[in-house]
Design a protein that fits this description.
Layout: H1 2-14, E1 19-23, H2 30-37, H3 48-56, E2 62-69, E3 74-81, E4 86-88, E5 102-104, E6 110-111, E7 117-121, H4 126-135, E8 141-145, E9 148-152, E10 157-160, E11 175-179, E12 182-186
Parallel strand pairs: 1-3, 4-7, 7-8, 10-11
Antiparallel strand pairs: 2-3, 4-5, 5-6, 8-9, 9-10, 11-12
Length: 187
């Protein structure tokens, strides 16, 4: 047991981190990311990668973490964030949405990054919006009100009062209105 303790202390003092490189995603402070991982120059080089990974994968916006030893005393931290699915713009009446907007991952968790399909409007819940975005991943914009949804696709626009009617719409260069009793097509 005394040998293990001596090895631990020796690894801390004889093998410190001399150089730390952080590849942070756009919009994330590299220094804050290193602090969240518990990495710093002078810290233990031998044990740092394991603990840094464990700390960072617990963050809700992190998809994957990679910590590499690049020679004696050199570490490289790389974080891959979750991909934003929606960009909630403006005051939507949803909890936690700021005036400047909020990026949301597919699991509904907020992300500190920009991106995703722009969403404007009010009167719907986040789960419904995520389902609409999953149904139309190529949407350019989603607008919603209590009356219904309008989705701008690359070559068409779809409106419906009920998101369950959206399905997979294939309308090139047309405007569709989907109702319970049928479809209205505008050219």
């Amino acid at each position: 047991m005394l040998t293990l303790a001596a090895l631990f202390v020796a690894s801390w003092t004889l093998l410190p981190v001399k150089e730390l490189e952080v590849a942070a995603p756009t919009g994330v402070d590299a220094n804050a990311l290193a602090r969240a991982a518990g990495l710093y120059e002078g810290g233990p080089w031998l044990y740092s990668p394991y603990w840094a990974r464990r700390r960072l994968v617990q963050l809700p916006w992190v998809e994957a973490v990679r910590v590499e030893r690049r020679g004696l005393g050199r570490l490289r931290l790389e974080v891959r964030p979750k991909k934003p699915v929606l960009w909630l713009k403006g005051a939507l009446g949803l909890p936690g949405v700021r005036k400047d907007g909020l990026a949301v991952a597919a699991d509904g968790r907020p992300l500190p990054l920009l991106g995703g399909v722009p969403v404007t409007g009010f009167g719907q819940d986040l789960k419904t919006l995520l389902n609409v975005a999953a149904t139309h991943p190529k949407a350019k914009e989603i607008r919603f009100t209590p009356a219904g949804f309008s989705i701008d696709l690359p070559r068409s626009r779809v409106w419906t009062p009920e998101p369950s009617r959206l399905g997979r719409v294939r309308a090139q260069g047309k405007e569709l209105h989907l109702y319970a009793w049928g479809v209205s097509v505008k050219r």
